[in-house]
Amino acid sequence: MALLPIPRLARTVALWLALCCVATACGGAREDPAQTPAADLASQVLVLRQALAVVRPGGAGQGPAPAPAEVALPHDWDRIYPGRDGTAAYRMTFAYGGVGQDIPALYLARAANSFEMHLNGKLLAASGAMDAPVLYGGQRPLYIPVPEAMLRPDNELTITIAARANAKAGLSRIEFGPGRLVHAHYQGALWFRVIGPLVITALSLLLTAISLLIWWRQRDPLFGLYALAEIAWSVSVVERLLESAPLPLHAWQVLVLASRTVFIVATARFALIIIDVRSPWPAWLVTAFLWIKLPLIVVMTFLFNTLILKLFDWSINMLLACGIASALAWAALRRPSRERLVLAATVALASALSTADVIRIQFSNDFYWDTSLTKYVSQLFSLSMAWLLVDRYTRTISSLAELNRNLDRKVAQKEEELHLLYAHSREIEREQATLRERGRIMRDMHDGLGSTLVGALSLLRSGRGTPMVLQQHLQQALDALKLSVDAMQDTGGDLAVVLGNLRYRLRARLEAAKLQVDWQVERLPAVAGLTPQIVRELQYLLLEAFSNVMQHAGGATVQVVARSLAGTAGGAEAILIEIRDDGCGFDAHSGPQGHGLANMRNRAAAIGGELSIASSARGTTISLLLYPQRWAEGEAA
């Protein structure tokens, strides 16, 4: 199944079924010698239509032998002696004109159920046991080459048959002529009666397996009904391929007749589902058909299977076919669709072929319906059902593919909408973060700058503020204001810009404190996530460090170092900032260190950094280790 998709395989099988139907139909057209042009038969092939027959119904050896009587061929035993066994010996004479190009041969459509053939007193051919003929013995066409040594100018052909009741016993017309012509007729009959049904049965079983597999996976009643119809038809056709019944005679005949009924019912139910019949009368018609067919099967099995019963059985089948055809036609007219039109045309064609067979067979005197095409009419239903299932399957696959494409488009559209919504939400988050940062800066300006100005104003009003003290307060207020403004500017993720702005803001104060600046800031990589809050916290931290140098260190030089580090903190890239002075230093491990150093540590922790202080008599070094990756991941303020 994986190598050949189901629709393609079903189309291939349907094509083979069509070819087989054409081949068998062509073969059937050559079945009856009467249909062959008279000129060809008269000049090349001799057809034996009369024989002197000694018939013993009831079995051989019972009473004196009856007198020979002239009979017409074909001689149909079941029509003349229904329900009786017996034997019959047929004697025919024919002339032979001499050696031809082909080896002469005999063709017989039937010599049933067992036979012995003698030509000029010598055994030419035999089949089966004369004392125990099998059920289906002698039903296949026979091609018998005739040795030249056995032929004379005037020949006597004797064929003795052993007939079994209700088993299509009897003798057909006999053809004698050149082997090439006779074999062509034999080959056509073989295709029509043996090879054709065999091929059709094999293909039907293959279709059955495919349909059962689909039904097993999907539980679709259409595939179940189709598989049931194909199984039933295979059982009814296989009867023509057997020599003897695989079951007791009556049980086997019931099975064969019941399988034909099951095929008709399953086909009718299939059609009713396809056309979506909403009226209840077609279902009632199928039920009535079953109630009539069941007792009819019993009668045809255990009583005489006469021509009247066959015609009655055909009439019941045609009644159901006409009813279903009417429902199909009505549905096709009211709700036209390709499926309804196909089924309606199939039923109409099948009914026409069956009616034509009945008329033709009555005129051709074919009691056993050997030349009938009706037995192959079911292939029309098989082909139409297979096509409908393939068409419905492919349309379903196409619909599913279209649904998948629509679903993909909708999913892509929803993804795009989600991306836009996510980008919009991120934009809103950034705006809200900016607003929060601005609010935080405003609070810082209020709490820092405002409190500093209020303190200076209080000193001025009280008269206790010296010009130097007032200048310090005002300078602090101005520095806080400038740093708050710098924090709101976009630095593009460049820490060197932040450090440069801070140096520029503190230049006047550093010069006033007579401190020289040793600036050793390397080219730093741009970092993501450098928010105004981080910039503000970093500026205030470094401002506190510079203020401590200017107020308490007492040195002459302050060195600013900034460089990037690799392999720090488990392989993550880090940036190191150091503030070094050459002042007197202090004891970093003794006693309280005041609010300034504590604020520096808190600010370093807020931005995900690590602060360390080293101090000695030669100066103090404040080291700040920053991890920009944490800012990008949102782990820092």
TrEMBL record:
What are the transmembrane regions? 190-215, 222-238, 250-272, 284-308, 314-333, 340-361
Please tell me whether the keyword Calcium is annotated for this protein: no
Write one Pfam family the protein is assigned to: HATPase_c
Q: What class of enzyme is it?
A: transferase
Annotated ranges, domain Histidine kinase/HSP90-like ATPase: 533-630
Alphabetized InterPro entries for the sequence:
HATPase_C_sf, HATPase_dom, Sensor_HK_TwoCompSys
Q: Which domain of life is it from?
A: Bacteria
Establish whether keyword Transmembrane helix is in the entry.
yes
Cross-referenced SMART domains, in alphabetical order?
HATPase_c
Q: Which reaction does it catalyse?
A: ATP + protein L-histidine = ADP + protein N-phospho-L-histidine
What's an example Gene Ontology biological process for this entry?
phosphorelay signal transduction system
Q: Extract the GO molecular function terms from the UniProt entry.
A: protein histidine kinase activity
- Leader peptide range in chain numbering: 1-25
Listed EC numbers: 2.7.13.3
Protein's name according to its UniProt entry? histidine kinase
Keyword vocabulary terms for this entry: Kinase, Membrane, Signal, Transferase, Transmembrane, Transmembrane helix, Two-component regulatory system
